[in-house]
Fold this protein.
Amino acid sequence: MKRATDISRPLLPGWRTAFLEGLRDGTPIGLGYFAVAFSLGITAKNAGLTPGQGFLASILCNASAGEYAAFTLIAAGASYLEVAIITLITNARYLLMSCAMSQRMRPGIPFYHRLFMAFDITDELFGINIARPGYLDPAYTYGAMAVAAPCWACGTAIGALAGSLLPLRLVSAFSVALYGMFLAVIIPPAKTDRVVAGLIILCFAASFLAASLPALAAVSSGTRTILLTVVISAAAAALFPRDPKEEES
Amino acid sequence: MTSNIYIYILVMAGVSFAIRALPLTLIQKQIKNRFIQSFLYYVPYVTLAVMTFPAILEATQSPVSGAAALIIGIAAAWLGADLFRVALACCATVLILELFL
């Protein structure tokens, strides 16, 4: 793994190697995406999307929670503004990851690399990119994207297509894959961060209450998610502000 | 109001890309505001937790298998299983339990 530091070139020498490494590291992620996207496809179909529209949404959005929440709102006949807000809230973490990546860009890197690299920031791809030492290598990022993004989009399309053909038993089983993915994101940090652990328990309780209370249960689940996220995150930020030094991950 | 699916997709895609691209293209320095930093740090965990429960109970044919998938998923993630394995463990839990329920 040789790394060059010539900043005058758009791509580093040895970009082919980096691209192949990206492909290699992106493959297991792509497999996981395919399985999870399958269950997302079932949600897309329930919201009235065709497999082609599911593919389009996934190849353009590359977001699990964001797409899921948006599809749920679309199914409920929500306004475009509501869909925009829920997409903003559920993808807000990518804002933070994008900030983190901006600190690791090679000085003088062409602007278009920033745009293309931003396109597929996901929890997992962010993870493998940031785990590499030194400046981020666009070729590596593109290699990982090249396998992960099509898997995500094809999984969605096939889920929307086959979801209705599969026995109910299998659909039921596949439908929890998405929640498994959410748990894989939120549980590991809870092991070392007590505030996060406490927050997750609080969120489960608050979300359960909000779904049961007649006054709140009347609002759509997407709107409840927006309200709860803003209120709980703001309260947590006020009560338990983060030490800036801890964010260097 | 009649809504067009393609406009929905366009809205989703536009917002998703803007969120990812704006910091990476505009912000060249570290964000200093501690409240905003903390808020952004907590948002993902809160959103995903809120979306997981109690929704997982309604995703399956029986709430019991949804609850079991939640517990197994938490356990698997706690023990260090990756994304694919956690998702698989949840699916397998539901599949096996619903053979009996």
